[in-house]
Design goal:
The protein has 4 domains: about 5-230, 3-Layer(aba) Sandwich (Rossmann fold), CATH 3.40.50.300; about 230-390, 3-Layer(aba) Sandwich (Rossmann fold), CATH 3.40.50; about 400-440, no CATH class; about 455-540, Alpha-Beta Plaits (2-Layer Sandwich), CATH 3.30.70. It has about 550 residues and is of the alpha/beta class. Helix 21 (about 480-490) packs across helix 22. The strands form 4 sheets. The protein has a 7-stranded parallel sheet, sandwiched between helices. Helices cover about 40% and strands about 15% of the residues. The structure holds adenosine-5'-diphosphate and magnesium ion (MG). Adenosine-5'-diphosphate binds next to helix 3.
Amino acid sequence: MDFKENPLKLKGDLLVHTNFHDFGISDKVIMSLSEMGFEAPTPIQTAAIPQALKGKDIIGQAQTGTGKTAAFGIPLLEQRPDFAPARSRYPYALVLTPTRELAVQVCEELGKMGARAGVVCLPVYGGQSIELQIKNLKRGVDIVVGTPGRLLDHIQRKTLSLKETKTIVLDEADEMLNMGFIEDIKKILSELPEEHQTLLFSATMPREILAIAKTHMKKPVQVSVDAGQMVVAKIKQVFYEVREEDKIKALTRLIDVEGPALTLVFCHTKKEVDDVSGKLQQMGYPAGALHGDFTQSHRDEMMRKFKSGDIDILVATDVAARGLDVPDVSHVINFSIPQDPEGYIHRIGRTGRAGKPGIAITLVNPRQYRHLRLIEQSAKTRIMKEKLPTGAEVKKAREDDLAAGLEEVIAEGKHAALYHLADSLLEKHSPRDLAAAAMHMMLGEAEVEEIEEVRTGFYEGGKKGFARLFMTVGRKDKIRVEDLIRSIAAEANIPARNIGNIALYDTFSFIEVPSDLADRVIGAVNDSIIKGRKVKIGHAKKRKQV
Ligand code: ADP
Ligand code: MG
């Protein structure tokens, strides 16, 4: 929580403020800030707030997670006109963000900071009902936060007027540029009254951004927090070298062993997001997917579930997850390596929020090693190589978890209510049997079998002359071993007796077939429909030797 510890270099016109009172901002805002747990301003806030309060145009550059929202948000709240006791008829401030999610998030943060001051903030973005937005705009708002396209739409329909807008904020300006919003932004800027203040925030400062600054801003003050250093301070960065085909396995192993709170997994393409999230789900991990092809309501639902912990793993593209601030993200995993250093910084900045520790993991295949080192150099950071946990370590982590869970229950003492049941069962069974059975129940069948498998090495080689296949149906699909044998035999047109051992788990199964028939089975069964479900089948990955 303590930003002061970060080894930051500050440039710009800097006064040292140690608390929010020094800015001379109103008590109501200070009270809201303290309710949010903000004790002292972050460096970018220290640098930007006094200047913005003076009405200066600002170009702010700082990495993600440095508190840019409040850096522009606090001055915005302070600028609320006195004549607006309830809500303004027209927004006095406008914030542009690249994505819908970010619009919602920034609006929420402004809403919290302005709660006591009674500031009314409205998010406006594509994908949400325009009628609803029009209705809300008509009721009057103080601050509108939105994506450029939809804002422009409202301006053109005359459902949004900027005639009283005194301040405009361009948040994540570089990303808006990347997403091709530049023309929309220029049009919006041209709708503003002659006298207005512009606050531009961006993690990077490409030429085009500086060009906007030059033509549209008045003697902007530059404030910046040095790149690279911020992230290093709080985020542990590691990478694992894995072959492309082993990445899913590596991912699940890391999740099992690290026991993350919330994990954000980054993929390169939408298709990869679908693949990875699908595979995780099939293996029983509570994972969701986020990318631009989903409807807005689906995206909102995903974010809600992720924030509330209904799903622990969110698989996303860069664009969809840009700027997201979910405090409990303990791990960012780059399933595919980011394209450039900026991308890397943006991604890993999704963890270690608000000074919490975070872990960033990058999976690289051997050919991407050099690329990773280049990212490391340009981002001025250190990414340490680590070795993937072995099956035995995974098993141990799970067992440790279980044991720790039990000890916690005992320490809390709440289990005492069940003593009478324990006593009566102990008349019939040994303590050892009872304890193990209870643990078995807690883990579920599949996990116990998996632990057993790792322990005995049963599947290491499989039966001689047999190939081991992985299939994406399991007990939860109401499928039985006989059903599987019958379906496979029929689809691949092979005798049922040729099919070897079958291990049925909750959401997937392993099937042994003679090696020379494996490809035929895969070809015939993959994408076929079994019990009303489209199934995938392929060679099972060999487990690491225990
Ligand atoms: P950025 O826009 O630079 O990526 P955010 O504005 O999203 O960063 O802030 C990152 C996190 O830090 C948020 O959870 C925010 O609530 C928190 N935060 C911002 N300023 C402070 C502060 N002064 N003290 C404590 N937490 C803060
Ligand atoms: Mg931000």
